[in-house]
């Protein structure tokens, strides 16, 4: 059965996996001394999903039969896949709603995404949870499983368009339901094949070279560059809240250092980042009068920080729940992160920020480093020589303006308007 359903010809037609790699996994399972059934089973699950959804025109017709969202009111589906997406999409969702657009929100149970969505007053449905399988195929199967869950939930709601910031499960679900999708992402070296092949429109920061995207298989006709960085969507009018200090029991007269550990499960994670992180932990442990606030990404990572790195006691304070990260960084004297959103947020807030991400540097972070707003740490010795001082806080002047938010909002609204028309030529990809 496996050899028939996962033949080279069928895998080649699907175009999602390299046939030779898949066949090798199947053969290894048949000849291996130990049980390696998980990988072929994941491959078979992926194929069965494609048979059930991509090969079923009746299902696509069911999802899109309303013709423009079932009436004159436009309907947008937004999937919040990770914690930063809550801050990014909230002002956009609010404005869409003021324009009379109905917004359907799904959330993945991961990190503090649900907590933050609730704190921002969003009405959402939690669909699926985070999984950290170690192999590409099993990661793909986990994504496919959540896509199936999303499709099952959303198909009766008849959204006109779907959008996310890097949610592969949404892109897959929208593709199989025939819903046009818009995808944003801001790190050009992620595994982007699903986005490139199945998204209708893709938005990325203008600092990313289109030629890099073209080499990765992106059809440039789908690509729209936006000005600035995604963090400017919500930072330019941010106002700090000092109550975060009381919430965390922090003394503003002593050093406050905020740390976000690297995400070890990310496919672009680099083992050198872990070395840098361990060096940082030992350096901070010796920092006099320091209050080190640690923001773990998951409960599993929190346990790991305590047992593997010994961060369960002073000077470390591991956050027990979601906190106002922007306000915390504003009141911090230094911020360290394994790359990603937090380093860019801190840089835009004007805080001393250090990236210990050792993977391939993305254009967004490179732009901030070139402007001397982000410090890149590449060697453990650099951490040993760091010194920390209380910084003087002045009136709030975030680095940014409303241009990024306005541009992205208009792109989303125009995309929705075009695709919601019954006679629209808007296609799913």
Which regions contain 5 or more consecutive residues with pLDDT less than 50?
57-70
Shape assignment: globular
| Quaternary status | single chain
What portion of residues belong to β-strands? Answer: 5-15%
Name the structural class. Answer: alpha/beta
How many individual β-strands? 13
Mean pLDDT over the residues: 85
The helix count comes to 20
Major sheet details: 7 strands, parallel
CATH class of the largest domain: Alpha Beta
**What is the spatial order of strands in the main beta sheet?**
3-2-1-4-5-6-7
Instruction: Report the CATH architecture of the largest domain.
Output: 3-Layer(aba) Sandwich
End-to-end gap? 32 Å
Helix content estimate: 40-55%
C-alpha Rg, in Å? 23 Å
What name is given to the CATH topology of the largest domain? Rossmann fold
CATH superfamily of the largest domain: Glycogen Phosphorylase B
Number of domains: 3
């Amino acid at each position: 059965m496996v050899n028939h359903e996962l033949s080279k010809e069928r895998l080649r037609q699907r175009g999602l996996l390299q046939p030779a790699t898949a066949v090798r996994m199947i053969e290894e399972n048949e000849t291996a001394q130990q049980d390696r059934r998980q990988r072929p089973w994941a491959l078979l699950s992926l194929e069965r999903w494609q048979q059930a959804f991509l090969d079923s025109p009746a299902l696509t017709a069911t999802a899109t039969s309303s013709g423009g969202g079932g009436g004159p009111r436009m309907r947008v589906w937004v999937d919040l896949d990770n914690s930063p997406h809550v801050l990014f999409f909230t002002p956009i969702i609010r404005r869409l709603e003021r324009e009379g657009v109905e917004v359907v929100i799904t959330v993945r149970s991961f990190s503090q995404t649900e907590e933050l969505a609730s704190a921002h007053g969003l009405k959402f449905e939690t669909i699926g949870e985070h999984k950290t399988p170690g192999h590409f195929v099993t990661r793909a199967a986990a994504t496919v499983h959540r896509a199936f869950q999303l499709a099952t939930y959303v198909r009766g709601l008849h959204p006109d368009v779907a959008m996310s910031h890097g949610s592969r499960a949404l892109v897959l679900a929208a593709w199989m339901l025939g819903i046009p999708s818009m995808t944003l992402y801001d790190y050009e070296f992620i595994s982007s094949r699903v986005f490139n092949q199945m998204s209708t429109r893709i938005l990325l920061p203008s600092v990313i070279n289109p030629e890099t995207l073209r080499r990765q298989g992106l059809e440039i006709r789908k690509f729209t560059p936006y000005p600035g960085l995604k963090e400017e969507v919500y930072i330019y009018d941010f106002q700090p809240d000092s109550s975060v200090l009381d919430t965390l029991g922090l003394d503003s007269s002593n050093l406050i250092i905020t740390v976000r550990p690297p995400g070890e499960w990310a496919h672009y994670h680099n083992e050198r980042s872990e070395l840098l992180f361990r060096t940082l932990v030992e350096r901070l442990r010796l920092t006099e009068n320091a209050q080190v606030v640690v923001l773990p990404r998951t409960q599993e990572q929190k346990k790991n920080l305590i047992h593997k790195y010994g961060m369960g006691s002073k000077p470390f304070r591991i956050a027990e729940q979601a906190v106002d990260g922007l306000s915390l960084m504003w009141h911090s004297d230094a911020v360290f992160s394994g790359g990603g959103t937090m380093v860019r947020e801190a840089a835009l807030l004007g805080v001393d920020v250090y990236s210990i991400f050792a993977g391939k540097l993305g254009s967004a972070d490179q732009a901030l480093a070139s402007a001397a707003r982000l410090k890149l740490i590449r060697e453990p010795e650099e951490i040993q020589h760091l010194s920390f001082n209380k910084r003087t806080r002045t009136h709030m002047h975030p680095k940014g303006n409303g241009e990024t938010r306005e541009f992205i909002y208009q792109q989303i609204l125009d995309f929705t308007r075009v695709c919601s028309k019954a006679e629209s030529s808007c296609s799913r990809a």
